[in-house]
């Protein structure tokens, strides 16, 4: 709403996986559903922000009240993000594929009877959060996510500095938790001030609470 705590603010959110084509019919991807990122985009909009969502391929609808653009690859996601700067705050929730194949075959790779398959040669994708978090058009508030299966908080702390983020939301995506694709999430907010662990709750509730927190952090930055 026009009187919400984020009225007059612009926000950018990335969500979902990326798909990195190997050939016209195959790709490298991950299990991200886009639920947490889309919920955060919707929650920021409910608080009054003008929200731009850059989504990888997902099977869920565009969030209400959010300007959504769809991309496939990490490089497309980076370009779409950069085209939507500057913004006041950005939340990078997308599970971007770390690697793509060095080249994309123009025709379907064929199996050759009796022969070993050709190994795939991989190359690193751009780090979208790091590019924006350490770039000249850095939003005033930059938040990343860290999906880990081990050493969750130590890794999140390293990422906070390396990627130029104000906050890393760390979540354990070990298979037992069912976070990837599931409805609930247990998150730890890692900032320069320390770690705050929230009880397990629905992804919508995490989104609501996080949006409130980000509105408060942005208001704090405005205080003289
Ligand atoms: O390094 P890691 O992939 O664990 O970092 C996760 C955080 O960085 C998330 O916020 C994710 O959206 C972001 N990221 C990105 N571009 C990449 C890899 C990760 O924006 N290529």
Brief sketch in words of this structure:
This protein is an alpha/beta fold and 224 residues long.
Would you mind describing this structure in some detail?
- With 224 residues, this protein is α/β, with parallel strands linked by helices.
- The chain has five helices and 14 strands.
- The strands form four sheets. The protein has an eight-stranded mixed β-sheet with strand order 5-4-1-6-9-10-12-13, sandwiched between helices. A two-stranded antiparallel sheet has the order 2-3.
- A hairpin with a 2-residue loop joins strand 2 and strand 3.
- Helix 1 packs across helix 5 (203-222).
- The chain is globular.
- The two termini are 26 Å apart.
- Keywords: Ligase, Lyase.
- Its EC number is 4.1.1.36, 6.3.2.5.
Lay out the secondary structure.
Blueprint: E1 10-15, E2 20-23, E3 26-28, H1 35-46, E4 50-55, E5 67-70, H2 74-83, E6 89-92, E7 99-101, E8 122-124, H3 128-133, E9 141-148, H4 152-162, E10 167-172, E11 184-185, E12 187-191, E13 194-197, E14 201-202, H5 203-222
Parallel strand pairs: 1-4, 1-6, 4-5, 6-9, 9-10
Antiparallel strand pairs: 2-3, 7-8, 10-12, 11-14, 12-13
The structure holds cytidine-5'-monophosphate.
Residues 14, 74, 92-94, 96, 125-129, 144-146, 159 line the site of cytidine-5'-monophosphate.
Keywords: Ligase, Lyase
Protein name: Bifunctional phosphopantothenoylcysteine decarboxylase/phosphopantothenate--cysteine ligase CoaBC
EC number: 4.1.1.36, 6.3.2.5
